[in-house]
Amino acid sequence: MNIKEYTEANRAAWNEVIPIHRKSSKKNLKTEFSKKGFSVLDNIETPILLNIGIKNRKIAQLCCNDGRELLSMINLGAESGTGFDISDEAIKDADNLKIISGAKCEFIRTDVYEIESKYNNSFDLVYISIGAINWLPDIDKFFSIASRLLKKNGKFFIYEMHPATFMLPAENEELKEDEDPFTIKYSYFSKDPWISDEGIDYVGKRKYKAKTTYEFVHTTSEIINSLISNNIKIELFNEYSHDVSTCFGHIENDKKVPLSFILVGQKE
Ligand SMILES: C[S@@+](CC[C@H](N)C(=O)[O-])C[C@H]1O[C@@H](n2cnc3c(N)ncnc32)[C@H](O)[C@@H]1O
Known about the structure:
With 268 residues, the chain is of the alpha/beta class. It has helices spanning 3-33, 45-52, 68-75, 88-101, 139-149, 220-229, and strands at 58-62, 80-85, 105-109, 123-129, 150-161, 194-196, 213-215, 232-240, 260-267. The chain has one domain: Vaccinia Virus protein VP39 (Rossmann fold, 3-Layer(aba) Sandwich), CATH 3.40.50.150. The radius of gyration is 18 Å and the shape is globular.
């Protein structure tokens, strides 16, 4: 399969799961975003974002889903936001939350690999978070797009699941007698897509007969090297023992394996 075939298959799967996610949590978000200043950003990323500067800045979020993180940054003082996501259903939710919050934002339904060149050199900050890069078959191409969207000296911010977690069984996986949650089950270096039809309802954790999804593991060195080769100077790289994914809460803070990371860079 080529990149487009993977991303279109994943688009169908995201369109399928978002109505399922809505049943679990969206009502609450609608109420929350009607309040001024509401933010879903946690107390790890918030001070880092405020420190690198979001106030009065133009922000792009890649793989923005329902836009709650971007809308939160507007509530924390950003000037405007543009969110890009491949899912038609996610963009519908983002547009609804935008109306409720009154934020100066636009949400664009597009494959990130096809973001139009009119957005080049437009943003002070490109923000990527939790459960985004595993959907992208080509990490180098993805970061080249992040880089072209940034103005010179613009900031790059990513808060993601740590690549090391993909070696371990997730919370919902059954363990064999000789396995424990730290048993290395999967290759860190595998380039084969992770193919599944078990569904992606990480919100309500419902099982359903799902459309096939294709996910990809990108190692830490691949992430760092492709940022460097795309003109992003790395300024901060933190690894954490807390889970950001809802899949590894059972080993959170055991301090054996890094479960998440934040990386900040600047376009040169
Ligand atoms: C888990 S969400 C990550 C966003 C946010 N951090 C969250 O937790 O909702 C993953 C998002 O990536 C989007 N996505 C997957 N592949 C994409 C692609 N090729 N282009 C744009 N968005 C994509 C999906 O539609 C989904 O909304």
